[in-house]
What does this fold into?
Amino acid sequence: MTHDEAAVRVRELTETLTRMAHEYYDLDAPTAEDYEYDMLMHELRDLEAEYPDLQEPDSPTQRVQGVASGRFEKVAHTVQMASLQDVFSFDEVGRFVEKVQETVSKPMFTVEPKIDGLSVSLEYENGVFTRGSTRGDGFVGEDVTANLKTIRSIPLKLKNAPAFLEVRGEVYMPRASFERLSAQQEAAGEELFKNPRNAAAGSLRQKDSAVTASRRLDIFVFNIQRIEGEQFALHSESLERIRELGFTAISYKKCAADADEIRAAIEEIGAMRGDLPFDIDGVVVKVDDLAQRQQLGATAKYPKWAVAYKFPPEEKVTKLHSIEVQVGRTGVLTPVAVFDAISLAGTSVSRAVLHNQQYITEKDIRVGDMIRVRKAGDIIPEVLCSESHEADSVPYLLPDRCPVCGAPVEKDGDEAAVRCFNPACPAQIFRSIVHFASKNAMNIDGLGPAIVQQLLDEKMIESAADLYTLSKDQLLQLEGFKEKSADNLLSSIEQSKSQPLDRVIAALGIRNIGQTAAKLLCAHFGSLDAIRSAKVEDIAEIEGFGEIMAASVAEAFAEPAFSSLVDTLLERGVKMQYEQKTVEDTRFSGMTFVLTGTLPTMKRDEAKALIEAHGGKVSGSVSKKTSVLVAGEDAGSKLTKAESLGVEVIDEAELIRRCNE
It folds into this structure.
């Protein structure tokens, strides 16, 4: 490559990487995979090394990506939150070790899993958590203290703490939390987060801390940024101190300055990658001796005493046997690839969503193909491409009629998806009722998909509103129902009539409107009548809404069948009233309480209400994340477990005192 050709390529890479970084860090909406980004960054770094005069001060290789959002107060980091240089082969790890050995004598290294999350700083004064911030560009981040307080594993108060402490950690979304969130978003017709890392970033940067809390984030702490009154010779010593203070510290393995030993440690972590309950995208190799780190120094962007080895994404080839077409709650036809089972990221995979016709056509996926599959973010299976076609294969086309009801299907505006617009489509009715009864909607306990299908098959219901006309005699006609189960289901249906308006709105399944949007809608307008009469432009004024969401609400209430359903629900006793609850006293925010035994003066429900009124959460079981156990007489096993875990134990009198101080 000539110098002029290199200059053109450097400009192209700089523009592409800057755009990708903005999408990834600032918008939490990446359009490229991490591996693609890493490879382009690697190419740019190599070109700048070969042609140093082409390296500009604003090159992506010279600055930490991301900017502080205007939605939060800015925080200037006293200690730069630098990023690490990525490497992609064991040869590169070996060269890093050699360079370290050239500068310092007999270095030891720590090898740590690289959590795929969002880097944050936590500050403590006299043991009290005072401020938390995102990395931002490494020099200035965002104050997200309130949202970080919802993460249960972040201690709000430290025991035997120094006068001042700042630690750095990685906030992440566990796989189970991501799967639960993805299912909720899919059921609500919302756009899914691409992977757990972006879900964590989007969740931590919410204006409403309640939304962050519902996402069940977690954290690993991996460094002491600043500490008063204490010094450490080794990084590994500081990690043990982090653990003593009550943080969940990153695990590590100490290795000598031997590339083979370090490689073995990396491979050991890589082998357990699929069994972990969270995502790791690589391994971090660091010099352990802090004085040696000072000798090694840093570049403008990276420390010279550490590198991050990045795992390549796991991919496998398998045979595509068929493409099933599912009809969703909103009528969208979704093609699903069915293939020979393969093991990816520790689990067996045999199905993957193909999204739409455009996706299938672009990748030329045909039944009978050998296809390449991986898990996006190590969670969601996806078909990358077709490796080969059978001799007699033909391009696949989605049906022009709904596979369930036979109605013609059409493209909906500019969307890539095709949709069945028949409101009487059995698939849509089934999925809409299942969604209506789900835990995050009307929460009708005991009304799962199988029972909904039974009720539809027996023509006992035709819509969600018909649930409120069911009788005990009808339920007893269904297979599997006895007196008690029938009574329990009818009781749960009756209780659902008192769900607040925002839950009802979410349950109705308006396109693009999930739980969060429903709450924002109700908080803004305050009543069903106000929402029904609102114009698109009025709805679009809600922070967090856009034109598409606003149009979805207005169009839904303008649809005669939808409006009739709402009227019928009202006639059958669904209250649809909205009362916005606010917690003015948040002294227990971020704390989890467990109640055990018989309290002297209060019932359990009263104690729970008192704690929640002060921003706390009440759990039914003791764990390492429990903040306080409130114990009465005959406390039993919960008290024993709390004491073994070092959980603080108080009585009712102390709880009342803390609420009144």
The domain at 592-660 is CATH 3.40.50.10190 (Rossmann fold). The chain has a mean pLDDT of 87. The chain has five domains: 3-62, 74-310, 315-420, 426-571, 592-660. The chain is about 35% helix and 20% strand.
